[in-house]
Amino acid sequence: MESDIEESLKKKQKKNPFLGESSTRKPLEHFSVRSYPAMGEVFQMLSRGMENWQSGFPVANPIMLNVDIDNDYMLLFDLLASPETYGKRDSDKLIFERLQKEFEAARASQTQEICLDGDQWNDGLLATIRERVHMEVERRAMPGDANVLADSDFQEKITYKVGSKVICCLEGARIGIQYETSFAGGSCFDFRGFAGEPCEPYHCVLESKSFLEKMTVLEHTIPFFLPIREAENDLLSSNAMRFIDHVGELLQAYVDRREQVRLIKELYGNQIGELYHSLPYHMIEFVVDDSDCKITVCLRYADLVLVLPTRVKVLAWPTSQFKKDSISAPSPARLSYAEDALRNMSLPEAYAEIVLNLPQALRQMFQHGGSC
Prior knowledge:
This is Centromere protein O. By secondary structure, the protein is an alpha+beta fold. It contains eleven helices and eleven strands. The strands form two sheets. The chain has a six-stranded mixed beta sheet with strand order 1-2-3-4-5-6, sandwiched between helices. A hairpin with a 3-residue loop joins strand 8 (about 285-290) and strand 9. The longest helix is centred in the last third of the chain and has 29 residues, at about 240-270.
């Protein structure tokens, strides 16, 4: 009996890179400078942190495990979100490089690029693209001489540009969508949907075997933490055009949130003591160390297509200096003007607004002992 148990454990160790020393892959070595608690304990801390987010309180340092924000933290959440995703980064990179080359080749060999506006992008056009894909498959299956007689209209290689999306026919009954993302630098007017500085492209390849079968997502380069499979199940079979648009909205909003965080780190990194975020940047928390108090900012986005937070809490925590001066102060107090700024402006703009008005807000807060 004991030998059977030992044999079972050995098999599990081989399958699971987190168990035992027999595994050839040791993912936690990426966190080389620190030791980490057991996975169960980590999940408990994450659960407590999520409860804090639900109640609106700041997330405490322990749930982030004091990892490096730009590297270890991302890897850790990668592992926690889905252990089997570890090791996929290299394969994802290869998929991206292959699809990028295939899309570049398709655009290089195009005979025409059609730019579509508004109502021109519709279900009828998508049906035409599917028909072209099926005609191309049939043409390639025809005997040699018959290839020449194929309908010349459908021998044209056309790509369609719809806003930031490029749609083209790929070989093998496939429709390719390339999403071109951008960021306009954090302007409250420009950053919502207006073209800015180009960011990285993403790809989604749909398979369309016939009009009698629903299209499926064959492969993609979309980050695993964005809900593309849920979108596929909910939309692709019933409204393929809406699916294509929705994925674009998810990607652009993710890039917007991420770049807003990157920009405040770049512009105000010396003023920000701590900054944490979830992988999709739908939970963001940072601390501003002021000489008079510590400011904690908690942001939450109820939907992954949003670029402005739906839930905001900004608290001012008085420092020991006020205690020395015997000034009566709330502990802590909400900064409502700062919360309003974060709800209505991009993160870099709101941060500048908060810092500009902070001295006056603190004076009012400590004079009246109330929230601002």
